[in-house]
Amino acid sequence: MSTPATTKSTAPPPQGDGVAQPGGAQVARALLDGVRRNMRQYGMLLALGLIVLLFQVWTGGDLLLPRNVSNLVLQNSYILILAIGMMMVIISGHIDLSVGSLMALVGGVGAVLMVEHHLSWPVAVVLALLLGAVAGALQGFFIAYVGIPSFIVTLAGMLLFRGLTEIFLQGQTLGPFPEGLQKIANGFLPEAGPQTNYHNLTLLLGLGLIAFVVFQEVRDRRRQREFALESLPTSLFALKVTALAAAVLVTTLLLASYKGAPVVLLILAVLLVGFGYVMRNAVIGRHVYAVGGNLPAAKLSGVKDKKVTFAVFLNMGMLAALAGLVFAARFNAASPKAGVNFELEAIAAAFIGGASMSGGVGTVTGAIIGGLVLGVLNNGMNLVGVGTDWQQVIKGLVLLAAVGFDVWNRRRAGV
After folding, report:
1. Distance from C-alpha of 332 to C-alpha of 85, rounded to nearest angstrom
2. Is the CB of residue 143 less than 8 Å from the CB of residue 150?
3. Does the keyword Amino-acid biosynthesis apply (predicted)?
4. Are 156 and 229 contacting, i.e. CB atoms less than 8 angstroms apart?
5. Which one, of 82, 178, 70, 173, lies nearest residue 122 by Cα?
6. Contact status, residue 121 vs residue 180, Cβ threshold 8 Å
7. DSSP 3-state assignment of 332?
8. 146: which DSSP letter?
9. Is 314 helix (H, G, I), strand (E, B) or coil?
10. What are the tens digits of pLDDT across the range 372-393?
11. Phi, psi of 93 (to 5 degrees)
12. How far is CA 7 from CA 12, 127, 194, in A?
């Protein structure tokens, strides 16, 4: 018996693939596990890249022309602003059908103040944002404290705000707006520095954004490891950071080779960073997730769910007002028909970006990604001449696929 044991222990180790294969298999398995665990989070980002690649080939390179990229930002800025607020509403377990009508009302009131009463545009902007906050607060009060479902309250708000817009504008389009307000929606950052082939200030901002993205990702990963939370494998994390940095760099170069970064893009960046930090790190952000994810447990934990719901709708009202001002300034006129179906675009962007019908799931970045998916689809289909009828069909299928993926993912996870 001792002889076989000695023979087994002294046998030479496997050569070649016999040594490397287990380690390689473990790395591959870890990567696959990481992809599966985070497919819901990064699936739409990957889909956005594929959609961009598809239309870039289909349009013969027109999609990523610098001028078209700039127009893509300008055309979708107000939807992206709405999507940020809508994502927070959906995370809290509610819905808001009134944002398109509130956009029109704010634009109409702003036009009356600036065009007919000649009020200075900064003062009119502040009053318009306050109007949006009041409208959102009223809806939040009925939802949080009276107990009326958000679907009913915001449906009533949609009808109410649209009717008030008709009253204020008397069924007519009103404009033009002051030049300073127009520059917020259509303007670009000023030129600075020596004469080059690129917009210098945009390049500097792009490099700063890349540094911020890398720092944020590394810090988040370090914190996850400190608290023994699940994190991406090193290889997948490096791939993620590289892809994000490359995407920001390409976008920066495209914008810098035209007129530079649009002013509204800076507004979007501030909203993205600010609300992203609030939802990730602030107490109110964690409470929003708690209320949407498990309301009874949140109440038992001491979360003031009514105040959270009220704050979410107040915030949505302010963002809808901001989007309304941007939309009106972009077209240099306020119209009673402004914002029609914009609430559906914002809701679709949130769900495509990873929100869950049951609440408690989603990110602000996901809302931006979902909005960009819709924006690229619209822009790309326009460039290749797809009719508006088929555009609606395709967007509907994309939304259905995104929500279907969410349902499948939750079933697979046993939720």
Report:
1. 24
2. yes
3. no
4. no
5. 178
6. yes
7. coil
8. I
9. helix
10. 999 999 999 999 998 888 989 9
11. 95, 20
12. 10, 88, 76
